[in-house]
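Hey,

Quick one before I head out. I ran the complex with adenosine-5'-triphosphate overnight. Inputs first:
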Amino acid sequence: MDRVRTGIEGLDQLLCGGLLRGNALLVAGSPGSGKTSLGMQFLHNGITKYGEPGLFITFEEFPERIYRDAENFGWDFRGLENQGKLKVLFTSPDVLQQDIIRDRGIVSEMIAEIGAARVVVDSISNLHDAEESPRGFREAVYGLVNALKRESLSALLIRELREKEEIGTGPEEFVVDGLILLTRGYVRGHNMRFIEVIKSRGSPHIAIPSLFFFGKGGIRVLPPFQEPFYRFEEAVSTGIADLDDLLGGGIPYGSFYLMEVDADLHQDIFDAGFAKEALEAGDRYVRIAGQSDDKSRWRALMKSAGMERRLRRATENDEVRFLEPDGETLSAELDQLCATAGAKTTHHHPSQVRSFRTLPPRSLVPMVHL
Ligand SMILES: Nc1ncnc2c1ncn2[C@@H]1O[C@H](COP(=O)(O)OP(=O)(O)OP(=O)(O)O)[C@@H](O)[C@H]1O
Ligand SMILES: [Mg+2]
């Protein structure tokens, strides 16, 4: 299938490679949700990454704003226009609608002039008052989509959602090939942005709301279970393959990770997996007991993970230590341990281990790597 990549990190993954060539996708969201930025990035990537010229049709009253917003992301829209790779068309909905139905209108001339393969219309909400006449609005969008298809363009049509307006039943949705929704929501008290591919005709897609962020070069989407951005060369497995993937291979040697676990989740399963992986990798392992932890519970846990014999052998070989210090003696014991382990192990980072001291007592720190 011939796909048009948006070039936006993460979004192409949600679209399973990109939108189908010649398709028109609706990008809907409330004011300030990032619609225009996404549209501009789609065109900029098209030109700079894929050699596909683009047309930006906007009903924006202040043309300067488009160039300035693009510049904020480091995109030189004027420069690209001068090179004949981009056209920014400022027009009114009426003029556009009259023009596109003609075979040789201004728009089709522009498309031919630069050889445009992509188009963004910002925004179709201006075409017609959808609330006043849903039928008129649908016909207006239908006319536009047909004209763009006639020109073999791959299109993003921006649609503004009014407050509380739900997407999913809009009159234009039957006309477009797909729908991308931009929303905001709270995650643990933080206001975050989400992007969701709701439909993509003729193509599989991942319909899970995914976080996205504004950055220097535009937006970046974090799809669920994506490939990590980097891989550590040497890392110890957490014992959970998916988590290792998210971490870029596991926990890198010499580093210090804090794990926050919800009260209703049991951390034991993680502890056992981490200890098992460490011992199997031939590393030393130190366990520092928490409040409701003791050696027999630890043994039972390792036994349930099928590690009873391995634990016994590791204990005999001094590969594993279990510390049950009270608050006072913890740092002294750790210092001593680091000193002895340091002589025997290649991965020894006492300074990081020492920062244990500064942690609040109930922080979950089941792992130290020496
Ligand atoms: N570089 C950036 N860093 C952080 N946030 C940014 C950045 N650029 C834009 N934004 C945020 O994105 C918002 C607007 O983005 P954009 O213009 O793409 O949204 P929109 O959905 O088109 O809005 P409107 O409905 O007003 O046209 C801004 O209000 C700003 O909060
Ligand atoms: Mg906008």
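Residues 29, 31-37, 72, 160, 214 surround adenosine-5'-triphosphate (ligand 1) (CB under 6 Å).

Talk tomorrow,
K.
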